Amino acid sequence: MGILNVTPDSFSDGGHFVSVDTALKQARFMADEGAYIIDIGGESTRPGAKAVPLQQELDRVIPIIEKIRAELPIKISIDTSKSIVMREAILAGADMINDVMALRGDGCLEAVATTQVDICLMHMQGEPRTMQTNPHYQDVIQDIKNFLLERIETCLKAGISSERLIIDPGFGFGKTMAHNLLLMQQLQELTALAYPVLIGVSRKSFIGNILNKAVTERLYGGLALAVLAVSKGAKVIRTHDVAATVDALTMTQAVLQQ
Length: 258
Known about the structure:
The chain is of the alpha/beta class. Helix content is about 45%, strand content about 15%. It contains ten helices and eight strands. A six-stranded parallel beta sheet has the order 1-2-3-4-5-6, covered by helices on one side. A two-stranded parallel sheet has the order 7-8. Helix 2 (about 55-70) runs parallel beside helix 3 and helix 9 packs parallel to helix 10 (about 240-255). The radius of gyration is 17 Å and the shape is globular.
């Protein structure tokens, strides 16, 4: 899954792809590098990010979804927690909803229940503006598992088939460095569930904290985590660096399939 942030304030690539032309060029580039999914986000979810008004988010993402849908035979994901953005994105051609709030927002469950799009349910403690303020768990793995299972059950009761669901433990979303490391160490506790697991660690701050690297220098740390995640059963890797990740995971799969 290649990341396409069409925002001015995302932590890694904010401001790089805010026009339709530059976003489309980046989507082409990632598709050529081997991305299977393009994940488009119009509102930053980095710690402390400001909320974006509905119309502004729509103006950012809908024209780009339409352009990519018209040109590229690739799966399109919309990274949003707003029900209206979900509805409009699906109408514009999105194939997948990637929601850091796991469909807990007003009208979100209803917006997707009767569609055919895939849905990624992510765990987050708190909300983006405050999630990194002293996050605490009784048992980080079990708490995340319980949350995701509850959200899955809610989706199933709403008529969403299990085949449409993907789960994301939410690295860096309401988690300390120790939480993130333990989560990766015990990831098989989640990949053992009957749902594909998506992992998003690309360029995140806990990599920088461990390696003492700036955001633009975290590729190798992210690749190490991607390989570990796939070796533990993860099915989708969300990344800013598609070509390098594809190569690393192709080699990983070649070994694992022997």
